[in-house]
């Protein structure tokens, strides 16, 4: 049991620490990051229940609709909902990069508990593969969500609406593509590799841009 819990928690904490420590000038309060992590974890149970009902009732007659609505839209929208209504207006959300810290925190809270439950059900031998794909992809979706939410927070007028729209729609799209690759293609590994490389590049590029904005604001 200890081995499974440790293997389930380790990748999420490692990724969260990486993005948290990138905030060099004014690290976010630990309690607020931890709270976001817990909120993300608590989302697992209602989302799993809704997904179970949708599957049992056979609401969707195609894999594409199932992955888009029951997985991509459901998971990413509720993570965004938590982020928007618990963090977006918070006084501590005062820098562009902060959105990435909290986005990653909520996403990795969800991914970590989901990972632990999966390893309990299927065995610790899946820990490495889960760390490379599902856990890291959730973190990267969180980076993208947080980046555009930060853009929206510090923009005005119509551009604010555009960035907030992208903060939930783009992670939903990317998550749906990720799951479609897993469910649709027999040789999914050959497609997943370039997709994950793109996802890492895209997310890290956004994190770098947010960090540059942070550096610019700190210069005299």
From TrEMBL:
Residues in the signal sequence: none
InterPro entries: Peptidase_PrsW_arch/bac, PrsW
Subcellular location field: Cell membrane
EC code: 3.4.-.-
Transmembrane segments: 6-21, 33-54, 66-88, 100-121, 127-150, 162-181, 187-204
Keywords for the protein's UniProt record, in alphabetical order: Cell membrane, Hydrolase, Membrane, Protease, Transmembrane, Transmembrane helix
One Pfam entry name: PrsW-protease
Source organism, top-level taxon: Bacteria
UniProt topology in membrane: Multi-pass membrane protein
GO biological process per UniProt: proteolysis
GO molecular function: peptidase activity
One GO term describing the cellular component: plasma membrane
Family annotation (PANTHER family): PROTEASE PRSW
Described purpose of this protein according to its UniProt entry: Involved in the degradation of specific anti-sigma factors.
Family per similarity comment: Belongs to the protease PrsW family.
Name the UniProt record assigns to this protein: Protease PrsW
């Amino acid at each position: 049991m200890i081995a499974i819990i440790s293997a389930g928690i380790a990748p999420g904490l490692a990724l969260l620490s990486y993005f948290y420590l990138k905030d060099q000038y004014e690290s976010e309060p630990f309690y607020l990051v931890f709270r976001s992590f817990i909120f993300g974890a608590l989302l697992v149970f209602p989302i799993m229940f809704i997904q179970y009902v949708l599957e049992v009732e056979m609401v969707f007659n195609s894999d594409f609709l199932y992955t888009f609505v029951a997985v991509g839209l459901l998971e990413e929208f509720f993570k965004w909902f938590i982020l928007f209504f618990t963090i977006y207006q918070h006084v501590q959300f005062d820098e562009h990069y902060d959105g990435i810290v909290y986005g990653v925190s909520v996403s990795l809270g969800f991914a970590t508990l989901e990972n632990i439950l999966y390893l309990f059900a299927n065995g610790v031998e899946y820990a490495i593969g889960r760390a490379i794909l599902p856990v890291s992809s959730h973190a990267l979706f969180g980076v993208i969500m947080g980046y555009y939410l930060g853009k929206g927070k510090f923009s005005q007028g119509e551009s604010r609406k555009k960035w907030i729209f992208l903060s939930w729609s783009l992670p939903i799209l990317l998550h749906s593509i990720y799951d479609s690759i897993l469910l649709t293609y027999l040789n999914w590994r050959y497609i997943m590799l370039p997709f994950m490389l793109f996802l890492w590049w895209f997310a890290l590029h956004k994190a770098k841009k947010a960090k540059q904005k942070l550096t610019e604001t700190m210069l005299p």
